[in-house]
Specification:
heterodimer; A: 339 residues; 8-stranded mixed β-sheet; 4-stranded antiparallel β-sheet; 12 strands; B: 322 residues; mainly alpha; MetI-like fold; 2 domains; 78% helix; flat; binds adenosine-5'-triphosphate; binds iron/sulfur cluster; binds magnesium ion
Chain lengths: 339, 322
C-alpha cells in the first residue's frame, strides 16, 4: 500500500475576481522510501496540491482524499493533523532565508520542532540532537554554528539547516517544495545530494517539487507533470523521459539543454499558462499545443493509461499507441517543426 | 552591541546640545540684556530682581559665554533656573510635576498596550470576522475622538453620574501621590489613564493588526505551521514577536512626547503634571519654567528614542549583529 495516496484533490480560493481553481482533480501516490517528482510551470498548482493535504493552504476550500499511512488527512481533526505535520510529514521550502525565523537561533528553531512533538525530551538532549542533525547535513563546526542566527548562514547552509530540522523527527515523508530554486547552481547539487543521502539512510519518501526536469531525471522514481491545476501526465522516470505522451511534457523536455541537442539555451514553451479563474474549454493546454485539433477544444481528455502500460497515464486526445501518436503528430504538424 | 549603544548615546547627546542651543537662542538670543532679564522675571518684577537676574545669568557677557554658564549650571548643578513667579527653583517645580506625568504616562501605556495589542491580534487572526469589524470600528471611533471630549465624556458618565447617585469612587479632579495613599492614587489615576489609553489603544490596535497580518503571510510562519506547532504558538512566538517593531517605535514616540506633558488630559482632570504646569506657566508668563519643561521634554524624547533602538536590537538579532 502506498504511503500517501491523494485522490481527486480539488482546491479553490475565493478571490474578488472569482474562484481560483488551483487544483482540479489531482491524484498521485508515493510509496515508502520512494521519490516522486512533481513538475510544471509556475502557477500550475504544485505547491497548493501538496500544502493543502497537510492543511497549509489556508483560505482554500479543499475536497478529495489524502490517505496517509491509512488515515485520511483531509477529514482528520486539525489537532491530529498538527501532530502529523513535522513529525510524520516534514516540509522544506524554496527560500531558506525567509523560511527560517530571523529572530531565533538555529538551535532554538530545531529544538522547538523536537520538543513540540516530544515534550519529554529535555533541553540538553534536544540541543545535542540539533547538533547531530547539523553534522548529518554537513554543516562544518556544527557545535558552534548551531548558536548562529539564520542570517549568519550562507544560502546553502540555511537550506541544510531546514533539511536538518525537517529530518529531526525521522518523518516518513519529506515534501521538498523547490528546495534548490533559490540557491546557486553549484550549491543546488550539494543540497540535492544531502536530501538523497538522508533519504537512503532513513528510508524517507520524498515528494520533490521543481520546474527543473534535470533534477527530476536525477533523483525521482516517478514523475507527475502538472498543468493549470491538473495532472496531465504521470509515469515512472524512464518512461516519462523516453516515451512521454503529452505534448506539454514534450515541450518541457525540449526546453532541457540535454534533450535539445545542439541548443544549450532553454526553449520555453511558447505562450502563457491560462488564468485559473477562467479556464479554456476542452484540453486546458490547447491554446499552446502545436497539435491541437477540434476535439481538443471541445472536450477535456481524461487522464488515461497509454502505450499499454499499467502506470503511464496521459490526458491527451492523441492516439494512445506509440505508432498512432507519431503518425497523427506528423499529420497534424503537416511538415512544420516544433520548437 | 556596546558599540551600537555608545553610538546611539553619543547621537542623543548631540541632539540635546542642539536643543539647548536652540532654546538658548530663542529665549536669550534676542533683545537687549534688560529685555531678557525682564522676560525671565515675569510681570511686575522689581528693578532689583532684574539686576540680580542680569548678574546671576551673566547677561552682560557675550552670548557664547552666557551659553556656557547656562550649560554648566544645567549639567553640573542640575539647575534649570529659578521661577521668580513661584519664588522656587524650576527643578523643584518640575520635580513635583514629573511623578504625576510619569504615573499618567506609564499607567496609560500599559493599558493601551494590553488593549491595543490584544485586540489587534484578535482582529488579525480572525480577519474579516465580526470581531475584526467590531474592533476596527471601535478603533476608528476612539481614534477620531479628541482627547478632551473623551475625558469630559468619562467625567460625565463615570464621575458625575455616579456622584449624583452618591457613589464616589473616582475623584473628578486632582492627584494624590502614590506614596501618601496608594489606593487614592489609583482612584485618581483611573479616569485619566483610560482617557489617554483609549485614544492610543486605537492606534496600537490598527498598528498591531496591520503588522501581524503582514507577518502572518511570511514564509517562516508557514514553516512554523509545517513544524506542527500549536496555532497559538505560531501566532504569538513566531508572528507577534516579529510584528512588534512598529508598535515599539510608536510606543517610543508616544511615551517620549507624553512625558513632555499630557496637556489636555492633565488639564481636564486638574492634575498638576508637566503639561498642566506648562500651560499655567504660559498664562503666568513664567518663562524659566517653560524653558525647563522644554528641556526636560526634549530629553525624554531623546531617551525614549534610545530605548526604542535598544529594544530593536534586543528584538532583532540582525540589528544587533549586523
Ligand atoms: N491563498 C491563495 N489565494 C488565491 N490564489 C492562490 C492562493 N494560493 C495559491 N493561489 C493560486 O493558485 C495557483 C497555484 O499556485 P501554486 O503556488 O500551487 O503554484 P506552483 O505550481 O507551486 O508555482 P511555483 O512554481 O511558482 O511555486 C496560482 O495561480 C496561485 O496564484
Ligand atoms: S488534447 Fe489536444 S490540445 Fe491537449 S495536449 Fe493533447 S493534442 Fe494538445
Ligand atoms: Mg510553488
Amino acid at each position: 500500500m502506498a504511503l500517501l495516496e491523494v485522490k481527486d484533490l480539488h482546491v479553490s480560493f475565493n478571490t474578488d475576481d472569482g474562484a481560483v481553481r488551483a487544483a482540479r482533480g489531482v491524484s498521485f501516490s508515493v510509496d515508502r522510501g520512494q521519490t516522486l517528482g512533481i513538475v510544471g510551470e509556475s502557477g500550475s498548482g504544485k505547491s497548493v496540491s501538496t500544502q493543502s493535504i497537510v492543511g497549509l493552504a489556508r483560505g482554500g476550500s479543499v475536497t478529495g482524499e489524502a490517505i496517509f499511512d491509512g488515515r485520511d488527512l483531509l477529514t482528520m481533526h486539525r489537532d491530529e493533523l498538527q501532530k502529523v505535520r513535522g513529525a510524520q510529514i516534514a516540509m522544506i521550502f524554496q527560500d531558506p532565508l525567509s523560511s527560517l525565523h530571523p529572530f531565533y537561533r538555529v538551535d532554538w528553531q530545531i529544538c522547538e520542532m523536537i520538543r513540540a512533538h516530544e515534550p519529554r525530551t529535555d533541553a540538553k538532549a534536544a540541543r545535542a540532537r540539533a547538533i547531530d542533525l547539523l553534522k548529518l547535513v554537513g554543516i562544518p563546526q556544527a557545535e558552534r554554528r548551531v548558536d548562529d542566527f539564520p542570517h549568519q548562514f550562507s544560502g546553502g547552509m540555511r537550506q541544510r539547516a531546514m533539511i536538518a530540522m525537517a529530518m529531526a523527527l525521522n518523518p516518513a515523508l519529506l515534501i521538498a517544495d523547490e528546495p534548490t530554486t533559490a540557491l546557486d547552481v553549484t550549491v543546488q547539487a550539494q543540497v540535492l545530494r544531502v536530501i538523497e543521502r538522508l533519504q537512503n539512510e532513513f528510508g524517507t519518501a520524498v515528494i520533490l517539487i521543481t520546474h527543473d526536469l534535470g533534477v527530476v531525471a536525477e533523483i525521482a522514481d516517478d514523475v507527475v507533470v502538472m498543468y493549470a491545476g491538473a495532472v496531465v501526465e504521470t509515469a515512472d522516470r524512464d518512461e516519462l523521459f523516453y516515451r512521454n505522451h503529452h505534448p506539454y511534457t514534450e515541450g518541457l523536455l525540449r526546453s532541457l539543454p540535454a534533450y535539445g541537442g545542439e541548443r544549450a539555451r532553454l526553449i520555453p514553451i511558447t505562450g502563457q499558462p491560462p488564468s485559473l479563474i477562467k479556464l479554456p474549454t476542452g484540453c486546458k493546454f490547447h491554446p499552446r499545443c502545436p497539435y491541437a485539433f477540434d476535439r481538443c477544444r471541445a472536450e477535456e481528455p481524461p487522464l488515461a493509461l497509454v502505450y499499454g502500460s499499467s502506470s503511464h497515464r496521459s490526458s491527451c486526445w492523441l492516439p494512445h499507441t506509440v505508432e498512432g501518436r507519431e503518425s497523427t503528430r506528423a499529420q497534424l504538424l503537416g511538415g512544420r517543426t516544433v520548437g | 552591541m556596546a558599540r551600537f549603544l555608545l553610538r546611539r548615546i553619543a547621537q542623543g547627546i548631540v541632539v540635546m546640545i542642539l536643543v539647548t542651543i536652540l532654546v538658548f537662542l530663542i529665549f536669550f538670543g534676542s533683545g537687549s540684556q534688560i529685555d531678557v532679564a525682564r522676560r525671565l522675571a515675569g510681570r511686575n518684577a522689581s528693578q532689583q530682581t532684574i539686576a540680580s537676574i542680569t548678574h546671576r545669568l551673566h547677561l552682560n557677557e557675550s552670548l557664547p559665554a552666557q551659553y556656557w554658564h547656562f550649560v554648566v549650571q544645567l549639567v553640573w548643578h542640575h539647575n534649570l533656573g529659578y521661577s521668580y513667579y513661584h519664588t522656587q527653583p524650576v527643578s523643584t517645580i518640575i520635580g513635583h510635576a514629573i511623578p504625576i506625568t510619569l504615573s499618567l504616562a506609564i499607567g496609560a501605556a500599559v493599558i493601551w498596550l494590553v488593549l491595543g495589542v490584544l485586540s489587534g491580534v484578535t482582529a488579525a487572526v480572525r480577519r474579516g470576522s465580526v470581531m475584526d469589524r467590531v474592533f476596527t470600528g471601535l478603533a476608528l471611533f476612539f481614534y477620531s475622538l479628541p482627547t478632551f471630549v473623551l475625558g469630559l465624556l468619562l467625567l460625565f458618565l463615570v464621575y458625575f453620574q455616579l456622584a449624583k447617585r452618591g457613589i464616589r469612587i473616582f475623584p473628578g479632579q486632582g492627584y494624590t501621590g502614590i506614596t501618601s495613599n496608594p489606593l487614592k492614587w489609583l482612584e485618581s489615576m483611573i479616569l485619566p489613564w483610560f482617557t489617554l489609553a483609549l485614544v492610543s489603544a486605537a492606534t496600537y490596535m490598527r498598528l498591531t493588526r496591520g503588522s501581524l497580518l503582514e507577518v502572518l503571510g511570511e514564509d517562516y510562519i508557514r514553516t512554523a505551521r509545517a513544524k506542527g506547532l500549536p496555532e497559538r504558538r505560531v501566532i504569538f512566538r513566531h508572528g507577534l514577536r516579529s510584528s512588534l517593531t512598529p508598535v515599539v517605535s510608536q510606543l517610543g514616540i508616544d511615551l517620549g512626547t507624553l512625558v513632555g506633558g499630557a496637556i489636555v488630559t492633565e488639564t481636564v482632570f486638574g492634575m498638576p503634571g508637566l503639561g498642566y504646569t506648562a500651560v499655567t506657566s504660559i498664562t503666568n508668563q513664567d518663562l524659566p519654567v517653560i524653558i525647563g519643561i522644554v528641556i526636560v521634554a526634549s530629553g525624554s524624547v531623546v531617551v525614549a528614542n534610545i530605548l526604542v533602538d535598544i529594544f530593536y536590537a534586543v528584538l532583532d538579532p540582525r540589528v544587533r549583529l549586523h
